[in-house]
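Internal ticket - ligand job 171, flavin mononucleotide:
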Amino acid sequence: MDAYRAIVTKRDTRHFLPNPVPADILTRILQAGRMAGSSKNTQPVRMVVVQDAERRAQLASCGDYAAHLTAAPVAIAVVLLPGGGPFDAGRAAQNLMVAAWASGITSCPVSMHRQECARTVLGLPPDHTVATVIALGYPDLKHPLSQGRQRLPLDEIVSWEAWGNHRPQGD
Ligand SMILES: Cc1cc2nc3c(=O)[nH]c(=O)nc-3n(C[C@H](O)[C@H](O)[C@H](O)COP(=O)(O)O)c2cc1C
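stdout (structure tokens):
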């Protein structure tokens, strides 16, 4: 799968097979997260890999919409050091999700609404932030990947030269 195809076909899924993610693929996923650029190359992003089922269940209790962390064989917490920006975390998170999908691994970002809970489960220092937790695994294709969710048309979300100058695409 080329990079463009991996990006445009990647959809978030909450239904996983229990099959483990092979160690070599997991390493590639983590490398993709590591290689994301950051503001002034400050590299404020760290990743905590959680495979233990009990710890994943504990993490699931820290978010309001996090139940699928119990079904995904791997969770990767994307952690920001103090002063790190959310854009840096987002770049790393999307990198690793796209790299995963290029190897057939689906994913879904999960918000940790209760940060103190997530910090405790992960053993993080109090000034660290869990930007997101990525649930990862092979997709259970009994459930359609996109579940019918659509994206807005390109000409609706793109302006040319100044805000509001839309023009039809694809002709
Ligand atoms: C910042 C952010 C936080 C999200 N948090 C959650 C979450 O807590 N639980 C969840 O199930 N999905 C979460 N999602 C996934 C979104 O619901 C998903 O990206 C959106 O519905 C589009 O999914 P699709 O690519 O499959 O169409 C989050 C996505 C983003 C970007």
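Auto-summary: Helices lie at 3-9, 23-34, 53-60, 86-102, 115-122, 154-157. The CA atoms of residues 105 and 138 lie 5 Å apart.
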